Amino acid sequence: MINTKDILETIEMLTSENLDVRTVTMGISLLDCIDPDPDKACQKIYDKITTKAAHLVEEVDKIAADYGIPIINKRISVTPIAMLLGAAPDADPVQYAKTLDAAAKKVGVNFIGGFGALVHKGFSSGDERLIRSIPRALAETDIVCSSVNIGSTKSGLNMDAVRLMGQVVRDTAEATKDNMCMGAAKLVVFCNAPEDNPFMAGAFHGVGEPDCVIHVGVSGPGAVRAALAKLPKDAPLDQVAELIKKTAFKITRLGQLVANLASQALGVPAGIIDLSLAPTPAIGDSVAHILEGMGLEGCGSCGTTAALAMLNDAVKKGGVMASNHVGGLSGAFIPVSEDDGMIKAATCGSLTLEKLEAMTAVCSVGIDMVVIPGDTTAEVISALIADEAAIGMVNSKTTAVRVIPAIGHKAGDVLDFGGLLGYAPIMPISKYAPDVFIHRGGRVPAPMQALKN
Amino acid sequence: MKAVITVIGMDCVGVIAKISSLCSQMNINIEDVTQSIMQDMFCMIMLVDLSKCNVSQAQVREAFAQAGQELKMQVTVTRQEVFSAMHEI
């Protein structure tokens, strides 16, 4: 029998430290649904999703019940829809979004991702039409998520797309202003987007992926925080890193177990485990609290970037050995509205947007779930996207921007999205105009891969 | 198909009797039991075999959850594979 200490540690993690498997995401290729007739294409999409994912929710819920493992979300990611639009020049992209919404609701998943485009080097025929339709698509659907990749380390930044996305983010918030600007919470702008990410809103099914695959995203900031709390205050940082690695290993093994079981039950190959610490607004399930547990008075203070860098690295080192294949975003997430500690830090002023930007250079994603004033111009949003994408491009890592312009609200107000998306105060952003820079368009050339100083 | 039942909470009369009689009703074989008192908390860990269980997993879970409520203790049922995955290399 496994020793008592290990059993009790696991039960404690599962019951009071919010350890869970955050998502089981089925990736489905829609490349075989391409059709010049949009009605036929949408029918093929609907049929393929509702066939492949017919038993996804049922089987995953059964695994959760049989094994006693909380599995929070069941999701679907699909081929970026812009790739299907190229063949249908007269199609309305929103029809495709509504089809995804209907298919996802039919099979009972929480979200479906992939209403997006990959435009890091330029627009192909369906890309720009899809991007311009995003505000309407996200306003007229409920559980569709959208992502656009505007840059990569190998190709540089597509600044025409950056300029366009600033406007699209703003328009998406405008289109959903009666619903907490929710549309913008379902839209991510990426640099170096991973093709196998199971997490929303940025999940899509890349073209290099198999026809159908199961990815799993783990969670567990609460378990890491609880483990850290048992270390003495004067324990050196290498002991802290070691403890995080060990905890990440255990968390990830749980994810791998679920991936194996889900793959077997659904007859679909297991893809990757995303080794992420994904916080929730629940008390104690916070990445900010881990950083504070390392010895910072408040998340956002000097030292936060260093602490986060170590956390991010230790999570990967622990998780890599625990899983067969690693992918997705893999690291510590720092979404402001989804993290109890981040919300408090942003509210009291210890965490600013500028510090968040610095933190994104060492964490797994980027400026995530940040609410900005409703009068922020499209150019400022574009420039924020450009800054964030530049960090990703130069450092060969994924970065992303998911900001919510709080249309009709002023600084100090709070937007409450509900559920896992949480709530957040409006964070101030520089009002100095970057308009001329953004209006130049064109491309930022790919960076040097040597002479790295 | 083995599972670990844990019972944690303030000690009271009849804990083991209640849990083991539930096991017996559902034809769940108890293979090993350890118990201890940690910081005034009663803590029992039971290794059971579910392979001949005569009800569904959902019913097993429900029955133990209800027993937990009656005893005012936390009762969990977790498959052994979870612990093996997390604690064995």
Task: Give the CATH topology of the largest domain in chain A.
Answer: Anaerobic Ribonucleotide-triphosphate Reductase Large Chain
Mean pLDDT of chain B: 90
Q: Could you say which structural class the secondary elements and strand pairing of chain A correspond to?
A: alpha/beta
How many domains make up the 3D coordinates of chain B?
1
Please tally the β strands of chain B and state the result: 4
Number of helices of chain A: 16
C-alpha Rg of chain A (nearest Å): 21 Å
Total tally of structural domains of chain A? 2
Please give the share of residues in helix of chain B.
Answer: 25-40%
Spell out the helices and strands of chain B N to C: EHEEHEH
The stretches of 5 or more residues of chain B where confidence is low (pLDDT under 50) are none
Fold and architecture overview:
The complex is a heterodimer of chains A (453) and B (89). With 453 residues, chain A is α/β, with parallel strands linked by helices. Helices cover 43% and strands 16% of the residues of chain A. Chain A contains 16 helices and 14 strands. Chain A has helices at 4-15, 38-52, 56-67, 82-85, 93-107, 127-140, 159-175, 182-185, 221-229, 237-266, 287-293, 304-322, 340-348, 353-359, 378-395, 435-439; strands at 21-28, 71-78, 111-113, 117-118, 144-152, 156-158, 187-191, 212-218, 270-274, 367-373, 399-406, 414-416, 423-425, 443-444. The mean pLDDT of chain A is 94. Chain B has 89 residues and is α+β, with helices and mostly antiparallel strands. Chain B has one domain (2-87): 2-Layer Sandwich (Alpha-Beta Plaits). Chain B has three helices and four strands. Chain B has helices at 15-25, 57-71, 80-87, and strands spanning 2-10, 29-38, 41-49, 74-79. In chain B, strand 2 and strand 3 (41-49) form a beta hairpin. In chain B, 28% of the residues are buried. Chains A and B meet through helix 1, helix 3 and helix 10 of A and strand 1, strand 2, strand 3, helix 2 and strand 4 of B.
